[in-house]
Amino acid sequence: MNVIEIIFPLALICALGYSCAKLAWLSKQDIDAISKLTFKLLIPIFLFQKMSTAQLAGNVNINYFLAFYGPLLLTYTIAFTINYCFHGIHKRHSAPSGVFALGASYSNTVIVGIPVLLAAFGDKAISLVFLIITFHSALLFTITGVLGINNNSQNASTNTLWSKLAQQTVFNPLVASITLGLIVNLLPINLPTILNNALILLGSPAIALALFLLGCSLTFYRIRQQKYFIIAASIIKLILLPTLVYITSKYLLQLPFEVICTLVIISSCPTGVNAYLIAKSQNIQRETVAGTIVASTLGCLITIPCWLWFLSMDKM
After folding, report:
1. Which of the residues 11, 97, 138, 296 could staple to 83 if both were Cys, CB 3.0 to 4.6 A apart?
2. For residues 71-76, average pLDDT
């Protein structure tokens, strides 16, 4: 696989978004409007259409989930322990430790992972991606939300907190679109051709817009304090997690090469922007998570090509 041909177009789109925002060619209001259209309509349509028409036969294998979610939960636990034991301000507090762990383990699969996998392996990898990430947001958001409930119990009722948790998971447009697409896929019906074609047209600009907005977002995040924890979270996200996934999928479960590549690339993606939304909603670790998003996004421009090169060499 030609790593430069895969990464360069994606990086170019991100750079264009960054330039448009940095030079104020697009205002904050313009970017917010494009972001609302992209993440609340186009991306969900794209995910629903792909998931509802994906060929899932042969992909439903419990070992695939074990190879991804086992290392993911282990990584979350390691990051939680680091913050819980060593953070000067949030030491011995579960809620900020959970948010830090989310920032160190939550992958930006839709914006970064899917374009890379499409460029590297084509549509054949997408069905497995959607199947694996169906529970990704729901699992990590739920764990982080539960850890934050006790922390916020003095300021809000338990029912209110559980309601917010449900909104972050079940009613998240990305989670809902993948879940609904999976349900439609499993039903003994097919989407009408006219409807399916309309969904394809609506979803086609979704990935490019998501990458463009990722570049725009880098102008709004700042890294000031908590640099050591930002570096630690980025290393955990970009190096430790994909390494554990690689070891588990290849040596412990001995999965097919294409599956190993897909799982490693998913896990090697930078921290997703939704992690910052969780930090913002809980009003803790906002700067650390925002800094991790920036650092890991910039870092993945080096680490993802390295992982692609390593996987290509591993196949030989």
Report:
1. 97
2. 97
